[in-house]
Amino acid sequence: MDLTKGTEKEKHGRAKKMMLWFGIVSLIMSFAGWTSAFVVSSSREDWLDGFKLPSSFTISVILIIISSLTLLLAKRALKSGNRSQTTLFLLIAFGLGVGFIVSQLIGFQQIIDLGYNFTGPTSNITMSYIYIIAAVHILHVVVGLICLLVVIYNHFKQKYNTENMLGFELAANFWHFVDILWLYLFLFLYFMS
User: How far apart are the first and last CA of the chain?
Assistant: First the structure.
């Protein structure tokens, strides 16, 4: 496929999609580095073996998977021209994203209640990795929520239709990536800690 062919709008859309994919690849590399460091560090003498992730982290997996499904339903509704369903599914996806962050914060509190802090005398290397990996992911979910807010705003302004879905698709692709990333991180931490 020749990326230099097509209308200015098509070239502009391809460029934005390519930039998103470059960003996603760099995020994959960053999290791959942290999870690799986690594996390497697990051979340390002060490593905490057998730690079970808080139940709130499991709930967060369910919330984020459902949010991706509702975003897919929003896209389908938008393509069929059903604005009210699109609005409903976008708002549900946003609400589930907020619920994800709340469940993560509850999970952090559960870890603290078990006596493990990020730093200080009650911290250890295992918990520090879990805090960092989950917290950095939360930051990316916040970015995803901002993207969803922009999509919701633009949807209310009637910017999107079957001919113009670029902003919607970019936000949705980023959201799905963040969701898949958390599923990977959860499974990694569940089986490796």
Answer: 44
